[in-house]
Amino acid sequence: MSRIGRQPIIIPPGTRVNLDGHQITVSGPKGQLDLKFNPVIKVEVGAENIQLSIAKPVPAAAALFGTTRNLIANMVEGVNNGFTKKLQIVGTGYRAQVEGDNLVLKLGFSHPVNFPIPEGINIDTPEKDILTVSGIDKAQVGQVAARIRNISKPEPYKGKGIRYEGEYIRKKAGKTGKTGVAGGAPAA
Prior knowledge:
Blueprint: H1 3-6, E1 9-10, E2 16-20, E3 23-28, E4 31-36, E5 41-45, E6 49-54, H2 59-80, E7 83-90, E8 95-99, E9 102-106, E10 113-116, E11 121-127, E12 130-135, H3 138-151, E13 161-164
Antiparallel strand pairs: 1-6, 2-3, 3-4, 5-6, 7-12, 7-13, 8-9, 9-10, 11-12
């Protein structure tokens, strides 16, 4: 049995949890999230916590036990505090700006890239080279941040592109390398 799955999920004040068959709904100050879970997992909602157990001992139950518990815990965390991912844009002239329901990225292409902001996601640009993606659904926040990063991944020679805040990019040597010989040919 999963040690993570056995841990109870504490329900903070102001959060409502409804269980309807194999669907759980969590609502709080920031919004509401729903999750339909597998029937091999049994969810019990108490006054102050949520406890999970395995209803049917099948091989898939062990794999789903801890995962379902963390999905529900992320829902409780999201409706109370929300989730945030920060992205950094590196490059001369690279910048981002929010215009209505679109994120406009200028990344050195021949044209600006328009990225439609999905419903339930908030994107802020506190500086021209910093993006903050926030929302109540952890998976959706991570997915949107990954899609924005995929528009222009950091390249390994100069490090230009979009990266997560704090992400380290290992840079490669150029054509000549660090041998000091012109043309990159080995010394005879």
